[in-house]
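Side project, low priority. Logging it here so it doesn't get lost.
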Amino acid sequence: AFNLGILGYYKYTEFFLSSFNNLLGLNLPIPEILLPLGVSFYSFTQIAYLVDVYRTEPGECQYTFIHYLLFVIFFPQLIAGPILRHNELIPEFENRKNFMFSHENVALGLATFVLGLGKKVMIADNIAPWVAPVFEHASDVTFLEAWVGALSYTIQLYFDFSGYSDMAIGLGLLFNFHMPVNFNSPYKALSIVDFWRRWHITLSHFLRDYLYIPLGGSRKGEARRYVNLTTTMLLGGLWHGAGWTYVVWGGLHGLYLSINHGWRKLGIPLPPVVSWLLTFTAVVVSWVLFRAATFGDAIAILQAMVGASGIVLPTEFQASYPWLGQLGLQFGQLDYMPTYVGQSFLILASLIGIVVFFPNTQELVKRFEPNLRWVFAIGFVAAVCLVSMNQVSEFLYFQF
C-alpha cells in the first residue's frame, strides 16, 4: 500500500484529478508534481521483494538491510529496467568472486553496452523525426504517411527500449553482476502470447506472478481466465502511463491474448507467415494507441491506415502513372513523409528485416571473441555513437 501510494501520488494525481474535472465538470486545482527518476521501476522492485518475502518460510530470506538497500538502488537498471527480483541479484552480492576484476565480464559488458547504445543512438534517434510529425498532425495525414508513422514508431520504440535494457545488462556485467534479459526478438513472435514472452520479459513475469496468478489465473474456468487476462493488461497499461490511451492499449492486448487463447483451443493451425503477419499488424495497431496523445488522434491515424481518408500518392507519380487516378487513387503533396516514398518504405522494410531475421544483442554477444574483428566492430559503433552525441536526443521511456 505504501509503495503503490507513492507511485499513485507522483504518477497519477494529475491524471485522476483532470479525469474527475472532465467527468463531473469540476475545477479542482491540479498541482505540479515532478516525477522522481525511476519511481515506476523501484516501486515494482520493492513490491516484488515484499510479496516474495511474505510468501517464504521464516528464516529463508537471510538478507541484511544493506543487501536490501543495494538491491533497490542498484543503478544500472533503475531508470528503464529490467525489473529485478531479489533472488536474481542479492545472492550475487554474497559471491566474493563478483568483487574481483574480471577481464571477461568487462569485455562482454562493454560489447553489450555499446551494442545497446548503437541501437538507441544510431537507429532509434534517427527514426524519431519520422514519428513526431505524423502523430502531431494526426487528422491531416494520408494513408502512406500514417503507415510510415506507425511503422517508424514500432521500430523506434523497440530499438530505444531494448537498447536501454542492453546497456543496463552491460553495465551490470562491468561490475560482475548478471541481470535478466528483457527482450528476445519480440517482432519474431508468431502470436500475441509469444510476443509477451519476448517483449519486456521482466514486466510480463511481474504481471503474471503478482497480478494474473493471484487473481486466479486459468484455474477458475475459461471465462474467469479471460477476465483475469484483461484485468492484468488493463493495469499493465495504466502502469505505462497516466492516460486513458494507455489503459485502452492494455485492454486491447488483453483482448488479443483472450482471442489467442481461444483460437488455440480450436486447434486450427495457421501458416507461420500468416501468424507472423497477423501478430505484427496487431502490435503495430496497438502502438498507435500507445503513442497517440488522444483517442481522437489514434482513431484518425487508424482510419488513415485503412484508407478511410483516401489513398494519396505523391504528385510526381501522376506524370509517370496517370492510370492510377482511374483506380480511385489521388495525387497530392505528402507533407509529413520524411523522405521519398520508396526510400522511406525501403528503410523501414530493412529495419523490420533486421529485427525479424537477424540475431539479437544476446545472440551476438554469445558469439563474442576477443579478436581484432570484434575490436574494430565494437569500436566503430562506439565511435559513431559518441560523434552523434552532439544533439539533444529523446529518452523515449522516461515518460513511463
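Brief comment: The first strand starts at residue 312 and ends at 314.
Revisit when time allows.
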